[in-house]
Known about the structure:
Helix content is 42%, strand content 9%. It is mainly alpha-helical. Strand 4 and strand 5 form a beta hairpin. Helix 3 packs across helix 7 (139-149).
Amino acid sequence: DFLKLCHGETTDCETDDWMAGYVKKYCRGEEGIPAVISSFDSDFFQLISDRVTILRYRGENSVLCDRIYLQDKFGIVPERYADFKSLTGDTADNIKGADKVGPKTAAQLVNEFGSLEEILARAEEIKKPSVRESVLHDAERLRKNYRLIKLDGVEKLPFGLEELKWKDSGITTTEVLKGIGLK
C-alpha cells in the first residue's frame, strides 16, 4: 500500500480478462490510448494492435512484441492468435491442440481459411489428409480451446482510467526495497 498502486483480486474471472477489458475500453478507436502489457503470458498476443504492445522483460534480452514481431515469429496477425493457439494448444495452460498441427501448419490454416470456425466449416478442403482428419476429429476440443483462450474483455472492470493514472509519490527505490523487506 505504501506505493499507492491500484490492485484488485477476483474469483469471477482471470486477470487477463480484466486486461482485455481495459484494452477494449481504453485502447481502441481514434481516441484510444497506448498501452504496454508486461507479461510472458502469450494469450496477450491477441490484444496487440497499433496502440498495444507486449513487453517480455528479460533484462538486456527484453522484447517489445508488436504486429511485426507476431508476423515474424508465427506468421499471423494478432486478431487470429486465439484461432492459431486453439489449433496448436498451450502446454503452459494444459491445453491440447489438434494432433499433427504445429505452429507452421496452424499459421498456414489460419492464413488460408481465417477463423477457427471457418477452418472447421471448410475442413474437407485441407489438403494434407492427416491434418484434415485431425482437425475434424478434434473439432469439439478445438472449439473448447478457443473459448478458453479468447480474451473478450467483457468483465466488469475494477478501476476507472483516472484511478489508474500514476501519481509519483516521490518514493525512492531504496524506500521501496525497505518496504518489502529487501534492504
